[in-house]
Design goal:
This protein is an alpha+beta fold and 559 residues long. Helices cover 26% and strands 20% of the residues.
Length: 559
């Protein structure tokens, strides 16, 4: 960890846009009623600019500040560590013997930010509404003022973290009259939540949250104002970090030591957790088009890529080795089948890639590019403009696979264009990430990202909660996911995971690249209570869903 004293910057980098200058220039301190100084905590809001007010947790364009700072879950599962879930709006829970009935006891005395009581009716609504409910849900009923009994049509032991730590609690008195369409498209500009913050203001450049005075954790939050700044590229955010005008950011910086040396935040931690992959629109039966729909092309890409060079040059050695099983190496080793490759190849093998294509009937044309039935293996690879690590990795991939007779053209798109293409299926290859699991178990990745129940045909946008962007659909995988979800016995789950791993390591709908370098920078000279290498009580980046609110509630300004 970097441990150097930070200095507040005197000027912003000249390269920043006028909008960002305006937002950053608003930072400062105000005197509270008690005479102490309350300084605004400045946070990187991400690169989707201009900012549009959207605090709907079911919307794909929801702002980070909604997910944890405003809305909360029943329990907190620490993605960066192990241990039991922490009670939040829920106090305790218990399963019946076969895992089909979950009894939840909620915290008494909690109020919504509009002054209404948080009740069991809110929990029932949040678990049963048409947008948020689990496909396996049968019913959720309040049996008294603090108890909710939830019944499923099959055992759900393995879904525990998704149910208790992933379902947002919403106020029934605000949301109950919303149709399904309204619930997914409503911007919810003045959200009513139970979290530590409420929304004060939103502009195209930034949005500001202020302390929820009725928050259920007494004396929290101690940081009274948080401003999220819209910054259009990693380089611009890095300039703000170095000048000391950004207090918390989860982003890739090639020279993390240089941030503190230039006067930025002294706190730094790197927590590789989430897979970086090539999304492939893989399923021709659901409307995907292009050479990548052929499994042989995906297999050839997989062995042609030099992951070691990508980590060294694009991620400056900060990424970690990925497993093609999508179990997190070191943490999830117990779940990896003994007869599958544990790690993705770290060096490229263009000869092996060419052999795969030739065995599948491809031949090289006069330009040295493989083709079959008159169709060349030419592919477009998109990454988000301004994401310098991903942009650099995409260019390296294009260079590497050309030696195997595969032509890849690396292009960039705005965040909105990127988001639209992946939810509609209008792409061939995308450089993107997979959300890692919040517990030491790859189940959530298998269900959310590989299951045919979590996707739609190309041209039909994925619904909220659906993450299978590749349109992959494999009956064997779907059956094994269902078997794992119902398992309380570890051996049954291990056998189901082995079935999944055999299929996905062959089919490669997501081509694994690295476990992404998840860097977090934080100002520990003016604020204390951050997760550190010594105490990773929560997943540290500012964009962390659920964890961001948990962290903000634990921060305190330095006196």
């Amino acid at each position: 960890m970097i441990r150097r004293r930070a200095r507040r910057g005197m000027a912003l980098a000249a390269a920043l846009t006028a909008v960002t200058l305006l937002a950053a220039g608003c930072s400062g301190a105000a005197e509270s009623e008690g005479g102490t100084v309350d300084r605004t905590l400045n946070v990187w809001a991400g690169s989707a600019t201009p900012i549009a007010a959207n605090f709907n947790p079911y919307a794909p364009t929801v702002l980070h500040g909604a997910l944890g700072p405003v809305y909360e879950t029943l329990f907190f599962f620490n993605k960066a560590g192990s241990g039991d879930p922490e009670p939040m709006l829920g106090e305790s829970f218990a399963w019946n013997e076969d895992g089909t009935v979950l009894t939840i006891t909620i915290r008494a005395g909690v109020k919504w930010s509009d002054g209404e009581d948080f009740t069991v009716d809110d929990v029932v609504y949040s678990l049963t509404n048409e947008v948020g409910k689990s496909p396996q849900l049968v019913s959720a009923e309040a049996t008294d003022e603090t108890t909710v009994v939830v019944t499923y049509d099959s055992p759900q032991f393995t879904n525990e973290s998704a149910i208790l730590g992933g379902a947002w609690m919403l106020p029934e008195h605000i949301w109950a009259d919303k149709s399904v369409e309204e619930a997914t498209t409503w911007a919810n500009e003045a959200p009513v939540g139970t979290g530590p913050y409420t929304v004060k203001s939103v502009s195209e450049a930034s949005y500001t949250l202020v302390a929820n005075e009725s928050y259920w954790q007494e004396g929290k939050p101690a940081v009274k104002e948080v401003r999220y700044l819209g910054i259009d590229a990693n380089a611009s955010a890095e300039d703000l970090l170095k000048s000391g005008d950004l207090d918390w950011a989860g982003m890739f910086v090639p020279d993390p030591e240089g941030v503190a040396a230039a006067g930025g935040p002294a706190g730094y931690v790197n927590t590789p957790q989430d897979p970086t992959v090539l999304y492939t629109c893989a399923n021709a039966d659901l409307g995907c088009e292009g050479p990548q729909t052929d499994v042989a092309v995906r297999q050839a890409l997989n062995v042609a890529i030099d992951r070691g060079t990508i980590n060294e040059k694009a991620f400056v050695g900060l990424a970690a080795t990925i497993s093609p099983t999508f179990a997190l190496l070191g943490r999830d080793d117990q779940w990896i089948a003994p007869d599958v490759e544990k790690e993705s190849p770290q060096t490229g093998d263009p000869e092996a890639a060419a052999a795969i294509l030739e065995e599948a009937g491809y031949t090289k044309d006069a330009d040295g590019v493989y083709e079959k039935d008159g169709v060349k293996v030419e592919l477009s690879l998109t990454s988000v403009e301004g994401w310098t690590d991903y942009n650099d990795a995409a260019k390296l991939i294009a260079e590497q696979v050309s030696a195997a007779g595969i032509k890849v053209t690396a292009t960039t798109a705005t965040w909105q264009e990127f988001s639209d293409s992946r939810v509609s299926g209008d792409f061939q290859l995308i450089m993107g990430g997979i959300i890692g699991t919040s517990v030491a178990d790859p189940f959530q990745i298998y269900r959310d990202w590989f299951s045919g129940e979590y996707t739609q045909p190309v041209g039909t946008e994925l619904e909220p909660g659906e993450w299978n962007f590749t349109r992959y659909s494999n009956p064997l995988v779907d059956a094994a996911v269902a078997e794992a979800a119902a398992a309380s016995d570890e051996q049954i789950k291990t056998d189901a995971y082995a079935e999944i791993q055999h299929e996905i390591t062959r089919d490669l709908p997501y081509i694994p690249l690295v476990i992404n370098a998840t860097q977090t920078f934080y100002n520990d000279t003016e604020f204390t209570g951050w997760p550190t290498d010594e105490d990773l009580y929560a997943f540290p980046p500012s964009w962390g869903s659920v964890s961001a609110g948990y962290i903000l509630a634990n921060l305190e300004p330095v006196e």
